[in-house]
Amino acid sequence: MELSALTDEIRRNVAAALKEDIGDGDVTAALIPASQNANARVITREDCVVCGTAWVNEVFRQLDPDVQIEWHVKDGDQVKADNLLYTLSGSARSLLTGERAALNFLQLLSGTATACQSYARLVSHTPVQILDTRKTIPGLRLAQKYAVSQGGCHNHRIGLYDAYLIKENHIAACGGIAQAIQQAQTNQPGKAVEVEVESMDEFQQALDAGADIVMLDNFDNDMLRKAVALNQQHHHPAKLEASGNVNQTTLVPIAETGVDYISIGALTKDCKAVDLSMRLTMAS
Questions:
Q1: 239 is a catalytic site residue
Q2: Are 133 and 155 in contact (CB under 8 A)?
Q3: How far apart are CA 143 and CA 185, in angstroms?
Q4: Active site (annotated) includes residue 141
Q5: Of residues 61, 135, 239, 269, which has the active-site annotation?
Q6: pTM for the full model?
Q7: What are the φ and ψ backbone dihedral angles of 31, each rounded to 5 degrees?
């Protein structure tokens, strides 16, 4: 996910965040004289991978373009606790009104990137790629998928429109694995076709039917190794993706079976926001 493709998305994300937070006006900030200027420093209270700088910039662009932001880090930087991330200067009202929206984006996306980095480091000795899923915060899918890439992991399909992922219910409704794959290839020949399977028999069917990617759902490690070996011998090998019951304890043994991908919903579903802090000082 490239930041350059997210300009409109960032604007929409920020507009929605400011609308829900400010409503018809920040009554507390209105206690401060309109002429009062201030400076602010934002630090991280814990080690993290920074992500979300463009969202912070957009918060203050929409709220008050006169606010000045100076960044001391960039997306993808690994930062130690208590380090300065950015400084602000401008209207005290604007700095306080935009504080929470800006920090919410930065702490969430940095938390996502930080979690991804921890997973990616564990399997850096293997060629496997760790993939995200569609288990994202509603309205922030593209933002989180960008954060995944900043943490060293990779994006699966973005939504239901850009690739096929044929699961158990799709297979049943289509009349079988081969029928579902054939229909997908007929409907949209250019799109990748991935099939989720739950047994070695279903795996063989998916290979024989020409699936591009086969998701091996909850296969144990012996089954994964067997699937990798069978795939290598097949006349039309597919990419193999392991999924289900993946955590930081099970990840490395799964990666070492030789699968191409491992998908992990926790990258975006269970991430913990990074602890950030803003401190304000009044300008004279």
A1: no
A2: no
A3: 30
A4: no
A5: 135
A6: 0.95
A7: -70, -20
